[in-house]
Fold this sequence. Notes:
Layout: E1 3-6, H1 12-18, E2 23-26, H2 36-42, E3 48-51, H3 59-65, E4 71-74, H4 84-89, E5 93-95, H5 102-117, H6 120-128, E6 149-153, H7 157-168, E7 172-176, H8 183-189, E8 191-193, H9 196-202, E9 205-208, H10 222-227, E10 233-236, H11 245-253, E11 259-262, H12 273-276, E12 281-283, H13 292-310
Parallel strand pairs: 1-2, 1-3, 3-4, 4-5, 6-7, 6-9, 7-8, 9-10, 10-11, 11-12
Helix pairs in contact: 1-13, 2-3, 5-7
The structure holds glyoxylic acid.
Amino acid sequence: MPQVLLTRELVPEAMRALEGRCELDLWERSPEAMPRDDLLRRAKDKDGLLTLLTEKVDAELLDAAGPRLKIVANHAVGFDNIDVPECTRRGVLVTNTPDVLTEATADLAWALVLASIRRVAEGDRFLRARTPWVWDPRMMLGHDLYGKTFGIVGCGRIGQAAARRATGFGMRIVYSDAVRLPAEAEQRLGAEYLSLDDLLAQSDVVSVHAPLTPETRHLFNAGTFRKMKHTAVLVNTARGPIVDEAALAEALHAGEIFAAGLDVYEREPQVEAALLDLDSVTLLPHLGSATVGTRVAMGLLAVENLFAGIAGERPRTPLNPEVLER
Length: 326
Ligand code: GLV
């Protein structure tokens, strides 16, 4: 039987798909995160690792696992936690879980757009605090979406799904990315390609859907916020370190931008203390793909990838398929 390490319990459907097909080493204190020392120790002599975005897969872990390791199946679309070139060098396959979470994540980005521009969570907190109130024409005003500009930073699968939703809100759609989309895709989305600076200057909503790379780390910093409209909102459902959280707290505090909605954090699961005190930011605990259907699909895809990799077959969603061509 192949030896598999699973770093946190998955949804029951995915756990059932693992049953009877491998010798499963499951981190027993799930949902607590697996400490690094335990991860290093228990990776030893495994054929496959089924990891989450919280596990750093680097040369140290690959050394600890040893030469039996054939695949790292990541239960996430993002793979900034994995040193893919190092895995490739060692002939270890890496897979992620794209596509199955695209629509759920775009929905959550929009939940944050609406929550931040219309002060939804703030209103909820206000009532729960038993604050006395009466309907007032000046009370808790947000900003309109209809006729405004929706700016997408990183227009891949999730960015495009967010764009499709913006059409329903009657918004103009602009995007910025390292690579411009084919004209046909721009036409289909009704999206206009802009430089990041032009996008920041023109957008009423800026939604981040880029991967975390050295180029996107702190892409949103004090200078970036100064280029945005005072009435704009920033939403980040991608990766926390793309936004400098201390600078964001200052920009919100100074009124340089109107509001923000965050699902991901620079030092996840920690949240910058200065943000916790601000009513103008809506905070969620990384729920982008957190729907029943999506988590089942992600779990089943990760398990399918895992067993394909162990069998030496091409997984459904490989990140380094060249490993199989050797
Ligand atoms: C979640 O953040 C993912 O990358 O799937």
